[in-house]
Amino acid sequence: MNVFLTGATGFVGFHVARALATEGAQLRLLVRKTSNLKNLEGLTGETHTGDLADPESLSPALADCDAVVHVAADYRLWIPDPAAMYRANVDGTRELLHLAREAGVPRFVYTSSVATMHFFTDGAVSDEDTPVSLAEMVGHYKRSKFLAEQEAIQAAQAGQQVIILNPTTPIGPRDVKPTPTGRIFVDFLNRKFPAYVDTGLNLVDVAEVARAHVLALTRGTPGRRYILGGENLTLKQILDKMSALTSIPSPTVEIPFAVAATYAFLEEWITGRIRGREPRATLEEVRMGRKKMFASSARAQHELGFRIAPIEPAMRAAIDWFRVHNYAP
Questions:
Q1: pTM over 0.70
Q2: Is 247 a domain residue?
Q3: Angle at CA 295, nearest 5°, toward 119 and 175?
Q4: Are 78 and 278 in contact (CB under 8 A)?
Q5: Mean pLDDT of 26-36
Q6: Is residue 250 part of a domain?
Q7: Which of 225, 221, 217, 211 shows the shortest CA–CA distance to 308?
Q8: CA-CA-CA-CA torsion sign (190, 188, 174, 68)
Q9: Is residue 114 assigned to a domain?
Q10: Does 279 map to a domain?
Q11: Does position 171 have pLDDT exceeding 80, yes or no?
């Protein structure tokens, strides 16, 4: 099977590429001129230089492909120019769907995000059928992913063989940038996590997320969304698990959301707007944190054969990787 894969230089994309290669797929890996190719170490495949912002640069790579797996996304909770995020996440997805149709590619797997779902403040569990709207999307990242997902759904409704995957919060090794979730781990390891807020996440092993992408190519139903999750945990429970794995004390002070919002506001103004650097905390993060992002992966388990694995091994692998690569002592 010839697969055109976007996002292989990123965290989830690297693991998806490795999972596809293990199953014998012949990979064409999209890279930009500015991509760090060191992130592709250990992967076998043909690289194709192009950019989602320049659709015509992608056309040659789609010839004779059996599938497109579109993992690439601009995943930041703070960005100086939000328009760039919409160009990458929304316009790029729309154009790649169009190019795949034009090239006659039979199958298209789109990696969305659990961020497009509706969540509750009381910790109730959401699934793919929980009603949601664009008005509920907090911040540019969530809005751009919601709009991109709508492009994939509309393409499927028009007859294109598009399967939509919604990973929750992947964790594991090779989080190079790192992602916002990876930064929680890095800050904790560097003892820069003195307190916490009352929020919750669903942590999932990135290796299981990658395996689900392979399964979706043959088992996924076009037009269906599949949540790929693991354990529903409060932030305090996540920090306690990291403490048990590292012997670093877990914070015991809970910060009210009003205090967290004030800190984030100052960070965005002083660090972001005045100094031009990424702030350590953003108002978007605080607003998202008011709801616990707890989700069910029952559909993916039943229809794809997705597995929910214990999260501690993935957490340990992430911690070890961050330490070996000097993100933390």
A1: yes
A2: no
A3: 100
A4: yes
A5: 90
A6: no
A7: 211
A8: negative
A9: yes
A10: no
A11: yes
Split into its structural domains, the chain has a count of 1
> What is the domain range of residue 78?
2-173+202-230
For residue range 132-168, what is the model confidence (pLDDT) as tens digits? 999 999 888 999 999 999 999 999 999 999 999 999 9
The β-bridge partners of 5 are 29, 69
C-alpha–C-alpha distance, residues 185 and 192, integer Å: 10
Q: What residue type is assigned to position 125 of the chain?
A: V
Residue with tokens 């797996």, as numbered in its chain: 69
Would you tell me how many other CB atoms lie within 10 Å of the CB of residue 63?
12
Amino acid letter for position 269: W
Quick one: pLDDT band at residue 265, thresholds 50, 70, 90? low
Whichever domain contains 128, its CATH number is: 3.40.50.720
Sheet of strand 200-205: strand arrangement = 169-171, 200-205, 231-234
Residues 6 or more apart whose CB falls under 8 angstroms from that of 200 comprise 123, 232, 233, 234, 235, 292, 293, 294
Mean pLDDT of 200-223: 97
Q: What type of residue is 238?
A: I
* More confident: 216 or 39: 216
Residue at 314: amino acid letter = A
For the cut 80, the answer to whether the pLDDT of residue 279 exceeds it is: no
CA atoms within 13 A on the CB side of 279: 23
* C-alpha dihedral (284, 287, 291, 293), degrees to nearest 10: 10
The Cα–Cα gap between 85 and 26 comes to 30
**118 residue type, one letter:** H
